[in-house]
Amino acid sequence: MSRHILFDLDGTLIDSSRSILAGFEAALAANGATPKVPVDSRLIGPPLPEALRILSGEEDPARIALIARAFADYYDTEGYKASDAYAGVTDMLAALHAAGSVLHIATNKRYRPTERIVKWLGWDRWFSQVYAIDKLPEARFVSKAAMIEHLMRHAQVPREQAVYVGDRDEDRVAATANALPFVLVSWGYGEYADLSAYDQVAATPLALGRLLMGPGASALT
User: Fold this and answer.
1) Checking phi first, is residue 183 left (phi over 0); if not, alpha (psi -120 to 50) or beta?
2) Which end of the chain has fewer beta carbons closer than 10 Å to its terminal beta carbon, N or C?
3) What are phi and psi of 5, to 5 degrees?
4) CA 118, CA 149: separation in Å to the nearest integer?
5) Angstrom distance (rounded) from CA 58 to CA 14
6) What fold characterizes domain 4-15+83-213?
7) Residues 6+ apart with CB under 8 A from 94
8) On the CB side of 200, how many CA atoms lie within 13 Å of its CA?
């Protein structure tokens, strides 16, 4: 069993599409902007400024910052509460924690809503480290790979005892950059032409839990 399990959040543990997409639309409307691409789940996953740049068509950092502030005003107060845990995820996390795994989150989401979502869902008692793109007060992480590297160094996570779990190929890239094995969950926001390209794939949270716990995973039924 992998002792340290690092999870992506959106599309892996939670379906936050309702709240995020509503927040995008509210933020654009508040700034007199209109969507330049469909407001759909393909916008969920990248860091917020990048998603807003794609959505709004804006290139001016000041304009993107204004839209991002409007998004945060909505999402950080009430919007985050519409985040839904995928069926079976809570039981999986509880079983992994009870079996002795140390659980972490490494997400491109901002830290404030991430922390609130984890607490709202009652998961804060299970996660040792919660890392987000703006976790460090002095600077944003330049990539998810850099975030994972910092988390592992700060929490003294041995690479040979860790695995990263996510729903997009960018998660695989981040794991590979840190010499970590990667498990793809196929229920998230990623779109895949060929799942056989991935070494480890889980189709349900139950299957993921059994894979992470290894043979004899009787705690998951």
Assistant:
1) beta
2) C
3) -120, 120
4) 22
5) 29
6) Rossmann fold (3.40.50)
7) 126
8) 18
